[in-house]
C-alpha cells in the first residue's frame, strides 16, 4: 500500500463517457472459427500441447524417434524371431546376413534380438527410477514449498544428506546388499535422484506461494489443495518435464555405465552389457560398439531434445485472437444478498482493541497494530489512511485472515457480518472469504495468474465456492464482466492477463471479488497502478457497486483525493494506532491529529505545476556536439 501519495482525483462524480481503455490485443489476420465456439464469439486459435509439439521440428522429430524406439523394444518378439540368449560359437562375429540383420556377437548371439530385448531392461529400468523419484520427490517438494515449517526443515536436511552421498558408492553398496538385479539398482537410483525433484519443486513452489495471484486465490475462498492443483502445479509442470527427460537420460547412462563396468546383473542383455562386451572385442570387431552406442546415444539425445521442445511448447501458451470490439453493455449484477442480521455492534465490520504482532527471527515479538477500534456499516465506504508503515495493511489482512507468516492477531476481536474472525478455524474463515468478505488488491496484473485466461480465473471460484456447473459459471462470469463495464466481455473472458490493460485487469479483479456476492469489500489501493482517468472510472464503479448492492467497502489508501471522492468516513492510522476518525469532510477539512495534517500537507494539488523542462543553451550546445 504504497506509491504515489500525491496523485489526487477529484470531481469524478460525473465520470465522462468511457474512454478508450486499451482493448484486448487483436492479432491481425483471419482465424477460422473453432468448432464449439458459441455464436457471436470471436474465433480463437486453439491448439493443444500435442498440436504445438507436432509443429516444433525438433520436438516432433525426437518424439517420433523415442516412440519408434519404445515401440521397437515393446514389439521385440514381432520384429525378430531370434532368441537374444541363444549362442552359436561357430557363428561368432558373423557379418549381417539372412536371419541376422545386424550379425552375431562374440558368443554368436543375434545382435538385433539383444538390442531389442536389452532395451526393455534399459528403458524399463530408467522408467522405474523416474517413477520412484517422482513419487518421492514431487509431493514432498510441493508440501515443503507450499507449507514450509518443520516438514520443510526436516525434508531439506534429509535431502542434503542424500545428495551428499556418492551415488556410485551407494549403488555398489546396494548391489552388494540387495543383489545384482538391474531393477533393484534402478530403485536405489530412483531414491538417489528423488532429492533433485524435491529441490526443483520446492524452490518453484516456495516462489509461487508468495505470488499475489496465489494470495488472491486464497482470498477468493479456494482451498490449499485447489490452489496447488490449479496455480502451483502448472508452474512446476514445464521444469519438471525437462528434469524428467534429463534424469531419464541420466538413469539410462548410469545403468549402462554400471553394466559397462561389469557391475550390473550380467544375466540379461542390456545396452550397457552389450557395450561392455563389444569393448572387450574392439580390436576384432569394432562395429559391435556401434549398435548399443547408437541405441544409447539416440535415446539420450532424443530425450534431451524432446525436453527442450516441450519447454518451448509449454512456455508458449498460445494466443487469444479476437475480432472487433463489440458495444459496451452494462448489466446489473445479480441480486444483492439479503441484508445482514444486525450484529451486536450494529456494524458489518467491527474491530475492537485489535492488536497484531510479529515474531521476529531472534524470537522477540514486535507489535505493529496496537489495539484499534473501528466500525463499518453496510453500504458505507470507509477510508483507512495513514503514512507508509502505519499498519493499514496489517489491519486489512487481519480481517481477511491472511497475515503473513509470523504475524498473528494477539488481542482483540474482529467481527464480519456478526461472525467473530479471531480464532476462527481456517476452514470456516475460508468459507467467509469470497462469499462474505472479498478483496481487491493493488496490483491488478500481479494478482492474475499469467497461465490462465481471465475467464477460467473467474469461473474457478464460482465453481468451487458456489458449486455452479461449468456453463452456469461461464454465464455468471460473463455477467460479472459486463457488470464491471468491460467492453466486449466475451473477448476479455478468453484473453490472458498479458492481453488486457491495467484498468481492465482491475475491473476483472473487482468482478472476481464480486463473484460470490460478498457483503464487505476490502480494496487495497485499488487505483494506485492506474492512470488518472482509469482511476476515476474504477472509483465510479466502486461507488455504483455500493449503491446497487449495499456493499460495505473498506478502502485502504494513501490517496486523500480518492478518500475525498469516494469515502463517507475516514479512519487515520499512525504508528499502528488509530489517531482520528470522522466523516470525510470533517477529517479532510478540519484535521485534529498532527499526522492527519501531515498527510494533507503532503498533497501537492494546490502547488502550481512546474514548467516543462527546457535544456539550457549550454546543455543544448553540448548535446549537439556529442
Ligand atoms: N512480515 C513482517 N514482519 C515484521 N514486521 C512487519 C511485517 N510486515 C509488516 N511489518 C511491519 O508492520 C508495520 C505496519 O505495516 P503495514 O504493511 O501494515 O503498513 P502500511 O500502513 O500498510 O504501509 P504501506 O502503505 O506502505 O503499505 C510496519 O512497521 C512494518 O514494518
From TrEMBL:
| Cell inner membrane among keywords | yes
Q: Does the keyword Transferase apply?
A: no
Residue ranges of domain ABC transporter in the record:
351-600
Describe its membrane topology: Multi-pass membrane protein; Peripheral membrane protein
Q: Which chain regions cross the lipid bilayer?
A: 58-79, 123-145, 157-177, 183-201, 232-254, 289-310
Q: Which residues form the ABC transmembrane type-1 domain?
A: 119-315
What InterPro entries does the annotation carry?
Answer: AAA+_ATPase, ABC_Ni/Peptide_Import, ABC_transporter-like_ATP-bd, ABC_transporter-like_CS, MetI-like, MetI-like_sf, P-loop_NTPase
Where is the region Disordered? 1-42, 318-342
Q: Where is the composition biased (Low complexity)?
A: 19-28
UniProt-annotated location(s): Cell membrane; Membrane
Instruction: Write out the entry's keywords from A to Z.
Output: ATP-binding, Cell inner membrane, Cell membrane, Membrane, Nucleotide-binding, Translocase, Transmembrane, Transmembrane helix, Transport
Q: Which domain of life is it from?
A: Bacteria
Q: Which CDD domains match?
A: ABC_NikE_OppD_transporters, TM_PBP2
Q: Where is the composition biased (Pro residues)?
A: 29-42
Q: Which family does it belong to?
A: Belongs to the binding-protein-dependent transport system permease family.
Q: What is this protein called?
A: Dipeptide/oligopeptide/nickel ABC transporter permease/ATP-binding protein
What organism, scientifically named, is this protein from?
Streptomyces evansiae
